[in-house]
Amino acid sequence: MPIISRGFHGRRPTSGHNLPPGQYETFDFPVMSAGPTPRIAHEDWEFTVTTEDGTRHRWGWTELMGLPAETPTVDLHCVTKWSKFGTRWRGVSLDTLLADVETAAEYALVHSYGGYTTNLPLEDLLDGQAWIAHEYDGDELAPEHGGPARLLVPHLYLWKSAKWVRGIQLLPEDEPGFWESVGYHDYGDPWREQRYQGD
């Protein structure tokens, strides 16, 4: 059962913003998770990309901080129907992390500290669409929002942007993650209201 912070209220969308179907705008940043919040020290954090043949590419916190960072401003859309516009992040593009990874895989299974997983087509992590984010709104990313680092894939529902990310497994065939295995949609496009299997 997800943990939801109380006390946030939706409002009508501000001028110039388009809401996906069934969504409302919030000005807070609701905290949701499927379990307790992991607390990972920077010195203990690592991120790995494992290819379909078992080859591992690894970055510790120092290596991640040494890579070129980007500062995307993106809209977020949660499957629980809230949307938050103009969120500001800092992180490393998956294009950078996957640049030297040789793979013929078409899918990715993302793994988090705490055991959470989610699946995506590999193409949705490329071409400037996804980041390993480590700052939010100018500050270090708080643990309740996935710190020290989370996946950020803003064009899909937010459950695809795995908090407390620790690795990506590249796969030749799709494999459902945590929420997908209990009925959430495999893809999760908010503009097509792909909340649950069959949507």
From TrEMBL:
<dbReference type="InterPro" id="IPR000572">
    <property type="entry name" value="OxRdtase_Mopterin-bd_dom"/>
</dbReference>
<dbReference type="Pfam" id="PF00174">
    <property type="entry name" value="Oxidored_molyb"/>
</dbReference>
<dbReference type="InterPro" id="IPR036374">
    <property type="entry name" value="OxRdtase_Mopterin-bd_sf"/>
</dbReference>
<feature type="domain" description="Oxidoreductase molybdopterin-binding">
    <location>
        <begin position="35"/>
        <end position="179"/>
    </location>
</feature>
<protein>
    <submittedName>
        <fullName>DMSO/TMAO reductase YedYZ, molybdopterin-dependent catalytic subunit</fullName>
    </submittedName>
</protein>
<feature type="region of interest" description="Disordered">
    <location>
        <begin position="1"/>
        <end position="21"/>
    </location>
</feature>
